Amino acid sequence: MNQLIVYGDIHGCYDEFISLRKKINPDKSDIEVCVGDIITKGKNSVKLLKYIQEHNIKSVIGNHEDKLVRYLEHENFNIKNPISLDEDEKNIIENLDKQDIKFLKNLPLFFKYENITILHGGLQNYHNLNNLTKKENSKILRMRYLDTYDNFITYGKENEDSIFWADTYDGNQGFIVYGHQWFDEVKHSKFALGIDTGCVYGNKLSAVIFDNYNIETFKIISVKANNGK
């Protein structure tokens, strides 16, 4: 029986990822996918990035990978780079080889396996993943909350009236497995599953496992964070 294994935001938490993968013990026929934000914040981003490539683990792009890719693209121009990096991000950039950069630049916005769609942030009901503008791509990477008129809210601008996108999503783009917004426990919505459980913040790293892409009988497997960052 083939399994689809989807990992929440890892953020360089290499040790926890190895522990989680050992706990799951994937078979060679299983498909392993990350929801993005595999790097930054944690202490072993580059080591994790290389491990994922070596073991043929897939990933969609997260907003943190997107930032580094955009920074690298701007470096090709003879003007001051408009994207500023923190020390962690600078260290990652300095330790990437050509294969790492190629891998990051080729990360897709989403994967679709039958009715299961894997992406990083979220989407609105009018979005069609096969026909998106550049601005909509950016929103999908960063989606968290909507206002009462169903408009995207920039991070930090949400209030008590804001609505989390997955609570209004109608399922038209498939059953979404996402990360980006971390929760103490995996967030179950009718047509979506949020699996970022804040490992890099000291909580835990989680994965969801689907047998034969069956969204009715998935399993959640988690390991506790060792020491957060």
UniProtKB/TrEMBL annotation:
<dbReference type="GO" id="GO:0016791">
    <property type="term" value="F:phosphatase activity"/>
</dbReference>
<dbReference type="GO" id="GO:0006798">
    <property type="term" value="P:polyphosphate catabolic process"/>
</dbReference>
<dbReference type="GO" id="GO:0005737">
    <property type="term" value="C:cytoplasm"/>
</dbReference>
<dbReference type="GO" id="GO:0000298">
    <property type="term" value="F:endopolyphosphatase activity"/>
</dbReference>
<dbReference type="InterPro" id="IPR004843">
    <property type="entry name" value="Calcineurin-like_PHP"/>
</dbReference>
<protein>
    <submittedName>
        <fullName>Protein phosphatase</fullName>
    </submittedName>
</protein>
<feature type="domain" description="Calcineurin-like phosphoesterase">
    <location>
        <begin position="5"/>
        <end position="181"/>
    </location>
</feature>
<dbReference type="InterPro" id="IPR029052">
    <property type="entry name" value="Metallo-depent_PP-like"/>
</dbReference>
<dbReference type="InterPro" id="IPR050126">
    <property type="entry name" value="Ap4A_hydrolase"/>
</dbReference>
<dbReference type="Pfam" id="PF00149">
    <property type="entry name" value="Metallophos"/>
</dbReference>
